[in-house]
Design a protein that fits this description.
Blueprint lengths: L4 E6 L3 H13 L4 E7 L3 H11 L6 E2 L2 H7 L4 E4 L6 H10 L3 E4 L7 H14 L3 E3 L7 H10 L5 E9 L13 H4 L10 H17 L3 E9 L10 E8 L4 E7 L9 E6 L3 E4 L9 E5 L3 E4 L16 H13 L8 H20 L3 E2 L7
Parallel strand pairs: 1-2, 1-4, 2-3, 4-5, 5-6, 7-10
Antiparallel strand pairs: 7-11, 8-9, 8-15, 9-10, 11-12, 12-13, 13-14
Helix pairs in contact: 1-9, 4-5, 5-10, 8-10
This protein binds nicotinamide-adenine-dinucleotide (NAD).
Length: 354
């Protein structure tokens, strides 16, 4: 049996303590957290306890971890504006890089990461976890039985706290309210709906029309994002997200074809998370294999994502969600911002890597 991948964590906040920790605990045969870095002592202490990391492998400065810890790779789970710096430094240290979404806050930053990854010949991947929920995985199996996409749509709504601002007492809310720190609805929330519906369309987005705006909250980041994409095959899809909508019938994506339709609650692990329509059967709830297993709670898909990613890393294959995938999702976001400014659709080919 090969030895588990030795992992260092850059950022030990909310997502790591909840969903990443659940995944690493489920995957001890392929990955072991051996070193951690965070500027917040409390988060360092909490995650150090979860993984029993020796105190000399807990670092306030991630650069000390890269220089001193014996690691094969890192995961990056820091505020968005730090992803590019952290990915470039980790790649330059010669370790594999797995970054939480989005890979960066701009395409220029994304290209700097890809250059560093290529120059140092390291593996690089971006966390698109909702593609790995049980509902989505079974949805992809069903999707393979349907023909070309005609129409798709996805929605992910939420309500921010009334005192949402850069001054918020919770640092995880404060950076999300700051443009300088890469916050905002489209890069934080809609991001997931964009890659989810695009995966179901089975044809890359080509033109993007959108309105990405700040309408309900007094912050300098967007709080609403409405996208209309035309795909290479001529089909169209929409993504709608907002931070002013209380959770009601949200977190789903659909694809419609001439053979039938699928509706998936990609953000939930519920009995009604997968529906299929055909002209003979009308709408039906489909069984999701493994969903009812009380031992298995992967509502965010992180266990499935990390299992596929560390397996690819261990066998030297390209990581399942590569830098190319991460950049394409970011290009859709960049196109949506530009389309908002110009009030006209943007051709994604004009945003290709130089
Ligand atoms: N894939 C998903 O479903 C999902 C869900 C939530 C968050 N995320 C992503 O995870 C990332 C982190 O989000 P979060 O909710 O955990 O935020 P958070 O604010 O709870 O955690 C961020 C952590 O980074 C640390 N940090 C800040 N600067 C640092 C530095 N220079 N060096 C090391 N650590 C530093 C903070 O102290 C904090 O512990 C973001 O990219 C976010 O988009 C993904």
């Amino acid at each position: 049996m090969t030895k588990p991948i030795r992992l260092g964590l850059i950022g030990c906040g909310g997502i790591v303590q909840l969903d990443h920790a659940r995944a690493y605990r489920a995957l001890t045969d392929i990955v072991k957290v051996v070193a951690i870095a965070d500027v917040l002592e409390e988060n360092l202490r909490q995650v150090g306890q979860i993984f029993d990391v020796p105190s000399d492998q807990q670092f306030a400065d991630y650069r000390d971890m890269l220089a001193n810890a014996e690691i094969d790779g890192v995961t990056i789970a820091t505020p968005h504006f730090l992803h590019a710096e952290h990915a470039v430094e980790a790649a330059s240290a010669g370790v594999a890089v797995i970054s939480e979404k989005p890979m960066a806050t701009s395409l220029a930053e994304a290209d700097t990461i890809l250059d560093a990854v290529e120059r140092n010949n390291v593996s690089y991947g971006v966390v698109h976890n909702y593609l790995y929920t049980l509902a989505m995985q079974e949805g992809f199996a069903q999707r393979a039985r349907l023909g070309a996409s005609i129409f798709g749509r996805a929605t992910g709504m939420g309500l921010k706290p009334a005192d949402f601002s850069t001054e918020h007492s919770d640092p995880a809310q404060a950076w999300r309210a700051s443009k300088a720190k890469g916050g905002g609805c489209i890069g934080d929330s809609s991001y997931h709906e964009i890659y989810s519906v695009n995966a179901l369309m089975d044809s890359p987005a080509r033109y993007v029309e959108a309105r990405v705006k700040t309408l309900s909250i007094d912050v300098d980041v967007d709080d609403i994002a409405m996208l209309l994409c035309e795909h290479e095959n001529g089909a169209v899809s929409t993504v709608s997200s907002a931070w002013c909508v209380p959770d009601i019938d949200t977190g789903w994506c659909e694809v419609h074809t001439n053979d039938g339709s699928l509706r998936i609650r990609h953000r939930k692990n519920l009995a009604d998370s997968l529906m299929r329509y055909t002209r003979t059967d009308s709408w039906q709830h489909l069984e999701i294999p493994g969903r009812a297993d009380p031992e298995f709670n992967d509502s965010t898909g992180h266990v499935g994502y990390f299992a596929a990613t560390f397996d690819a890393l261990a066998s030297g294959r390209e990581l399942p969600i590569s830098g190319k995938h991460g950049r394409h999702n970011l290009a859709i976001i960049e196109a949506a911002r530009r389309a908002t400014e110009r009030r006209q659709a943007v051709d994604l080919k004009s945003l290709k890597r130089g």
